[in-house]
Input
Amino acid sequence: MTDFREAVMGDLPHLQNLDLKGYEQQPETMDWWKSVITNPSMTCVVACQNQTPIGMVVWTHQEFQKPSPMSGQTTVHVHKICVQKGFRYRGIGSSLMAKARKETYRLKCKTMSISVPEYQCISDDPDNVSQWLHKLGFKADSVLPVPLHLYGKNYDQYLFLFEVPK
Ligand SMILES: CC(C)(COP(=O)(O)OP(=O)(O)OC[C@H]1O[C@@H](n2cnc3c(N)ncnc32)[C@H](O)[C@@H]1OP(=O)(O)O)[C@@H](O)C(=O)NCCC(=O)NCCS
Output
């Protein structure tokens, strides 16, 4: 059975491990992960099997930055969403996103957002998460002004939005 709860300090090694092995982007530093637990503006929910995290979602409630036409509005922005290989395709990722969506409704935000690098939006690629996001009701909105710098290359980042139904 999969349990969901807020992450605690003792989860840090598991979170770093998930970030390193399961996530397609450069892993965050230990300081960043500590701030996820200690910074009240950040939330991390973990999916656990036998009390051990095998999936995580990290979000912040933040303002859209200029030059976005939505600057001034707030969004629940998902920074990380990851499920350990071997536990995927069982609905765990969707359940983690549902936790962030619930917070979006609770905070009365009009949108929930996530940025995805271009290499994860290639059709027919097994790592194409844009299809997964479409299933969850997200739509590609725009290209972020700052590219993702990874291993010496720059990649466009697409902003995907989930609009709360009126
Ligand atoms: C993306 C990710 C979190 C999905 O987690 P998951 O637990 O496998 O997702 P779910 O089981 O909830 O998926 C539900 C549905 O999406 C489909 N799906 C899952 N991953 C998919 C993918 N990469 N592409 C297309 N469809 C996908 C499932 O088949 C399922 O479809 P169904 O409801 O019609 O049966 C997981 O693949 C992952 O950790 N990837 C690496 C990290 C990453 O890329 N994060 C996203 C960055 S934006």
Summary: The chain has four helices and nine strands. The mean pLDDT is 93.
